[in-house]
Write a structure and sequence with these properties.
The structure is a single chain. The protein is of the alpha/beta class and about 650 residues long. Helices cover about 30% and strands about 20% of the residues. It has two domains: about 500 residues, 3-Layer(aba) Sandwich (Rossmann fold), CATH 3.40.50; about 120 residues, GMP Synthetase, Chain A, domain 3 (2-Layer Sandwich), CATH 3.30.300.30. The chain contains 20 helices and 30 strands. The strands form eight sheets. An eight-stranded mixed β-sheet has the order 12-11-8-6-7-14-15-23, with helices on both faces. Strands 5-4-17-16-18-19-20 form a seven-stranded mixed β-sheet, with helices on both faces. The protein has a four-stranded antiparallel β-sheet with strand order 21-22-24-25. It is globular. Bound molecules: adenosine-5'-triphosphate (ATP) and magnesium ion. The site of magnesium ion has 3 residues, from loops. Adenosine-5'-triphosphate binds next to strand 20, strand 24 and strand 25.
């Protein structure tokens, strides 16, 4: 893969050195890279000592049957004990584990001691329902404390959980229940979304009418909204009845490090979702280490907020397992950023004195669209580290985030990783790295990643290619649930001995890594490879554009033609000249070859639960095809709106 316009993504030349006070007190310094380079496995063995092991592992990595890794295989631990009990035993029982903020404005702070009691009771409740170590439990919940309690209770008794995003349809839920063969579902009557109670339990009932999900024997229901819900006697049980009457003490058993912890299905931006399997010891080691290193967490003083949904891997690794393993105080927010007003997030930052914020580029661009004046109304001075995940962050959004949220002072860490990698892999370190807006930059200590060409050879500095991971890492997926062959084919077949992540990337002149989006998303236009990310970034650098999604549609003359879907900033009205102006703007930024053939202003873009744009659906629209699988969209009506707009607003040469 060559990429003509690549250099343009890097036109943002500003550099941001770590602030002196962050560098002086950073959890991790440049020494970590040196230590890991000198002895990679020794480095990870050292990080595993962050955890409490019932039996200390003598082995670090067993790679005798690649790509099926075993980390710390002879060690035994209990994941929930590591996330909860040991902090209480260390005297931090009164520390808040979670500040919960409900969308209607109700709130509740759970200390580590309270969390321990609830997790213990929930563990007993699951045991009463017949759940044993190794049995899978499906969790279909809103963003409430019981969701975290449920996950930890499963971990405590060794029952792998499969969290299904609370906005998925009955079909999506049913196929995931069936694939994992879960016999128990934990849900709630509903949750608050956009100012109103939104039901969940009826979707579970519907899912359980599907033949594949018919083996579910118990549905445990948390009462959140109090709305009326259908009830099946003998199968459905109230959480507040079953859990509350259980003993408050529970003795955790230690499980082998390779005991399955959870199954999580990928977003499905590129095709049918895959059930990614993660195990215990290696996963917890890397999530704890990366959370400590990348966010520079000081558990005594920081208030950490990750805005992801728990139904996404970021919620698993950086709301639940990493932060709780580190004894962090976290914020859990139930609702949407604009309920009841566009400043809700900033109000929450102010209320809890949030010091570390971790969110997605799509959310940042949405806030840009709403206007700078909104965050300006709140006191955000507690913030000291900002993080981004989920997509390449365009330099425009990176700079805005730092300036308007971080008072032009805070480091921004752009973290690259995947459901499959389990934890952050490539990211600046806030006390070490001189940050380049738009780049994830450097593999973390202990991680081996590089960019290769079509033949698998490492590219020279200044060239583009495929992002690969060249050594196993502790939190790597172990397989695709029930499908070892698909695991091999999907990740390990393209380049001998290397994990291929599906993403295109470039190494700049310093050897820093810039993510360029999915290789499937690279367009071929009149013999030139052009990345969708770059054209999107050029469009968003126009003052009137808030968000852009670009796809290549089959074209008889040019192989593919660039089609752009754009959202205007601050509700600006579209006018006659805008499309021409945007095309000229892209031509100026990237060269005439990258000028979109069609530009369509839209109100919304199709997004997954993690805020990723579903380009494959936009490609279907641009090529007038029937839409592919839409089950992982947060809102499938968006596609109808876009299709309805298509014939009239498109601009053609
Ligand atoms: P599927 O694999 O089913 O298509 P998905 O890849 O969208 O789903 P996730 O595992 O949630 O599901 O997303 C991981 C992908 O997100 C990465 O492969 C990458 O394309 C993108 N990504 C995540 N973080 C970053 C980042 N900081 N910079 C660039 N891209 C990122
Ligand atoms: Mg993927």
């Amino acid at each position: 893969m060559t990429n003509e316009s690549l250099a343009n993504l890097m036109t943002e030349k500003r550099r941001f050195a770590p602030p002196a006070e962050v560098a002086a007190d950073a959890n991790v310094t440049a020494d970590a890279y040196r230590a890991a380079d000198a002895d990679r496995l020794g480095f990870w063995a050292e990080q595993a000592r962050r955890l409490h092991w019932e039996t200390e592992p003598a082995q670090t990595l067993d790679w005798s049957n690649p790509p099926f890794a075993k980390w710390f295989a002879d060690g035994r631990l209990n994941v929930a004990y590591n996330c909860v009990d040991r902090h209480v035993l260390a005297g931090h029982g009164d520390r808040v584990a979670l500040h919960f903020e409900g969308e209607p404005g109700d709130s509740r702070s759970l200390t580590y001691a309270e969390l321990l009691r609830e997790v213990s009771q929930a563990a007993h409740a699951l045991t009463e329902l017949g759940v044993e170590a190794g049995d899978r439990v499906a969790i279909y919940m809103p963003m409430i404390p019981e969701t975290v309690v449920a996950m930890l209770a499963c971990a405590r008794i060794g029952a792998p959980h499969s969290v299904v995003f609370g906005a998925f349809s009955a079909d999506a839920l049913a196929t995931r229940i069936e694939d994992a063969d879960a016999r128990v579902v934990i849900t709630s009557d509903g949750g608050y979304r956009r100012g109103a109670p939104s039901p969940l339990k009826p979707t579970v009932d519907e899912a359980l009418t599907r033949p594949g999900a018919a083996r579910v024997r118990s549905v445990l229901v948390v009462r959140r909204t109090g709305q009326d819900i259908p009830w099946t006697e003998g199968r459905d049980l109230w959480w507040h009845e079953l859990v509350a009457r259980q003993p408050e003490q529970h003795t955790p058993l230690a499980f082998p490090a390779e005991h399955p912890l959870f199954i999580l299905y990928t977003s499905g931006t590129t095709g049918r979702p895959k059930g990614i399997l993660h195990t215990s010891g290696g996963y917890l080691t890397q999530t704890a280490y990366t959370h400590h290193a990348v966010f520079d967490l000081k558990p005594e003083t920081d208030v950490y907020w990750c805005t992801a949904d728990v139904g996404w891997v970021t919620g698993h690794s950086y709301i639940v397992y990493g932060p709780l393993a580190n004894g962090a105080t976290g914020v859990l927010y139930e609702g949407t950023p604009n309920t009841p007003h566009n400043g809700r997030w900033w109000e929450i930052v102010q209320k809890y004195g949030v010091t570390i914020l971790y969110t997605a580029p799509t959310a940042i661009r949405t806030c840009m669209k709403w206007g700078d004046d909104i965050p300006a109304k709140f006191d955000l001075s507690s913030l000291r580290i900002l993080g981004s995940v989920g997509e390449p962050i365009n330099p425009e959004a990176w700079i805005w985030y730092r300036k308007h949220i971080g008072a032009d002072r805070t480091p921004v860490v752009d973290t690259w990783w995947q459901t499959e990698t389990g934890a952050i892999m490539i990211s600046p370190l806030p006390g070490v790295t001189v940050a380049k807006p738009g780049a994830a930059q450097v593999p973390l200590p202990g991680i081996a990643a590089t960019v290769v060409d079509d033949d698998g050879a490492e590219v020279a500095h200044g060239s583009g290619g495929y992002l690969t991971l060249t050594e196993p890492w502790p939190s790597m997926l172990r397989t695709i649930w029930g499908d070892d062959q698909r695991y091999l084919d999907t990740y390990w077949s393209r380049f001998e001995g290397k994990y291929f992540a599906g993403d295109g990337a470039k190494k700049d002149e310093d050897g820093d890594i810039w993510l360029l989006g999915r290789v499937d998303d690279v367009m071929l236009v009149s013999g030139h490879n052009i990345s969708t990310t770059e054209v999107e970034s050029a469009l968003v650098s126009h003052p009137r554009i808030a968000e852009a999604a670009v796809v290549g549609a089959t074209d008889p003359q040019t192989t593919q033609a660039i089609c752009a879907f754009v959202i205007l900033r601050g509700g600006a009205a579209e006018d006659e000249g805008l499309v021409d102006e945007l095309r000229a703007h892209v031509a100026k930024e990237l060269g005439p070859i990258a000028k979109p053939k069609r530009i369509l202003p839209v109100d919304e873009l199709p997004k997954t639960r993690s805020g990723k744009i579903m380009r494959r659906l936009l490609r279907d629209v641009a090529e007038n095809r029937e839409l592919g699988d839409v089950t992982t969209l947060t809102d499938s009506s968006v596609m109808e709106l876009i299709q309805a707009k298509l014939p009239t607003a498109a601009s053609e040469d």
